[in-house]
Amino acid sequence: MNNRIKNAFAAAKADGRGAFVAYLTIGYPTLAASETAADELAENGADVLELGVPFSDPFADGGVIRSAAYRALENGVSLGDVIALAKRLRAKHPKTGLVLFSYYNPIFSMGLGNFANVAADAGIDAVLSVDLPLEEREELLAVLRPKDIGYVPLIAPNTPIGRVRESAEGVGDSFLYVITVKGTTGARTELPADLVSRLDEIRAVSPIPVAAGFGISTKAQAAVVSQHADGYIVGSALVKCLGEGKTPCLNG
Fold first, then answer.
1. From the candidates 61, 125, 173, 230, which is the catalytic residue?
2. Is 250 contained in some domain?
3. CATH code at position 69
4. Buried-most residue among 59, 109, 145, 180 (CB within 10 A)?
């Protein structure tokens, strides 16, 4: 099993900080621009990159990422393009964790065995499928495990703690993606009042690192989350920056 994600979280902990997990919608505003942004993030503080596969019905995403996905699809970007980009990133950033972030339909349509083969060849460390429930994920894990590819479970704000524990089992050297707020993705001015206790509860039962995302848009919010989780995830704020022609710059 490769340990890039495990090592990234361990290195961040040794530095006394939370691991910075950065999400980008690949293909927005162009494929080249998203690749450049991924390079810059990897070179300037991102411990793990989440490479978002554009999808036609991104129901879990807010306006920023939804619009980015539509633009990327208009640009003709596919799952295959994202995997090819991951392979280029792996060659340039051998230690950076790479997570392929997708809805399940593009993965299933590629053919699970074929997907696992090309993902492994590209150096992808883990896969996150937004809409694949715990009860149905084994068919995907069955093809990922032989390729030493982990899986990142999503934990909703109302997921019972027993289900959290079950979700964290058998997914390799990965991490739990804990959703901080109810609703879709998008930057928030404030994080939920009960988030700290929720993160503490989840961290107490998880055998793998815990990273929190949805709504984190400032360094102050990232600092608060990092006191109660092993990492923080920034997505919409980075995608918005990129859409405005700015260099993504939020880091630990």
1. 61
2. no
3. 3.20.20.70
4. 180
pTM: 0.93
Mean pLDDT computed over 37-51:
95
35, 47, 50, 173: which is the annotated catalytic residue?
50
Structural domains of the chain, count:
1
| pLDDT of amino acid 172 | 80
Tell me, yes or no, whether 249 lies in a domain: no
To the query of whether residue 125 is one of the catalytic residues in this protein, the response is: no
CA distances from 95 to 5, 89, 130, 231, 248 (A): 9, 10, 25, 17, 20
Q: Quote the strand ranges of 19-168, DSSP E.
A: 19-25, 48-52, 97-102, 126-129, 150-151, 154-155
**What is the rounded CA–CA span in Å between residue 143 and residue 172?**
13
Specify whether 74 is catalytic. no
Q: Is residue 252 part of a domain?
A: no
Query: Which H or E run includes 54?
Result: none
Structural domain harbouring 66: 4-243
Decide if 63 contacts 243 (C-beta within 8 A). no
Cβ pair 220, 249 in contact under 8 A:
no
Taking each helix axis as running N to C, give the angle between helix 79-92 and helix 112-122, from 0 to 180 degrees, rounded to the nearest 10. 20
